Amino acid sequence: AALTVRFLTRRFIGEYGDMEFIYSHNLTVDGREILLHIWDVPNSQEQAEDGSSEEKRIQWADSFVLVYSICDRASFNILPLKIQFIKAAKEGQSQEKVPIVIVGNKRDLHHQREVSSEEGRLLALSLDCGFYEVSAAE
C-alpha cells in the first residue's frame, strides 16, 4: 500500500492496515492519456482467502506488480508460486505473455536486508519478469 500511495500521491505514509483498495489514476504516457485502475491487496489478506477471490483479481487485471520486502524473506519466497498461478490463469487463455514486474521494497532499510538484489534479479530473470528495487519511503 505504501508503494501504491507513493506512486499516486508522491507522499509516503508508513503504516497501513490490511485493507484492500482499488485506486483510479490518470497518467500521460508518450503523449497518451491512460486511466489506471490499481487493485492493491495486502499479502496477509490473500493468504486468508480462498483461491476464487485471487482468481477473480487475476482475471480482472491486465498486468501485475508483485511487491516484497527486502527485509522479509517470507514475502520473497511466496513469489514463484504466485507468479506461476498468475501465468497459468492468464496465459492459459491466450498465447500472450502477461506483464509481471517484481519489486523489492524498503531499499532504504539495507541494514535489515534478508533478500539480496541479486536474488531478486535472478528470480525475475528465471520467471521472465521485470525487476526493480525501490524505497517507498525515499
Automatic annotation (TrEMBL):
EC number: 3.6.5.2
Alphabetized Gene3D superfamilies for the sequence: P-loop containing nucleotide triphosphate hydrolases
The reaction(s) this protein catalyses: GTP + H2O = GDP + phosphate + H(+)
InterPro entries: P-loop_NTPase, Ras-related_GTPase, Small_GTPase
Protein name: small monomeric GTPase
Organism field: Hylia prasina
Family: Belongs to the small GTPase superfamily. Ras family.
Source taxon at top rank: Eukaryota
SMART domains in alphabetical order: RAB, RAS
Pfam families, per database record: Ras
Keyword Transmembrane set for record: no
SUPFAM superfamilies named in the record: P-loop containing nucleoside triphosphate hydrolases (SSF52540)
Keywords, sorted A to Z: GTP-binding, Hydrolase, Nucleotide-binding
Molecular function GO labels: G protein activity; GTP binding
